[in-house]
Predict the structure.
Amino acid sequence: MASKSINKIILIGNLGQDPELRYTSSGVAVASFSMATSESWKDQDGNVQEKTQWHKLVAWRKLAEIVGEYLKKGSKVYIEGRIQYRSYDDKNGVKRDVTEIVVDQMLMLDSKGAGHSGGGSAAAPPPPQQAEDAGPDKADDLPF
């Protein structure tokens, strides 16, 4: 039996800047943004130390449009994705290596309206509603 590989990243942190939403020449949405995760501990002297890691993230298609519309610098988010390594030549012909997280899932963790600046028109979408026909008064519709 062939062994299975897993490339899975889970992050919870805050955005370092507003996402940059753009479109490829074929019209596919892509959002690029950075995220900070921090850990803290006490050193041998009892002083609290903190280390922050910065992550480059990229989201595609509909998720990219959601990221571009609802997330802002400072937004707290839960991210699931995979790590990707790629290379490209910059404008001067210098080879650049990039490590980034390709986002598959995203949850906004801020309270409604938090992390948004300005008029607040970019509030998070409401949670899904339960089906109205699931109540006890619909018992006659059950197949048993």
Remarks:
- Strands lie at 9-15, 20-23, 29-42, 48-60, 76-89, 95-108.
- Residues 7-38+50-113 form a domain with the OB fold (Dihydrolipoamide Acetyltransferase, E2P) fold (CATH 2.40.50.140).
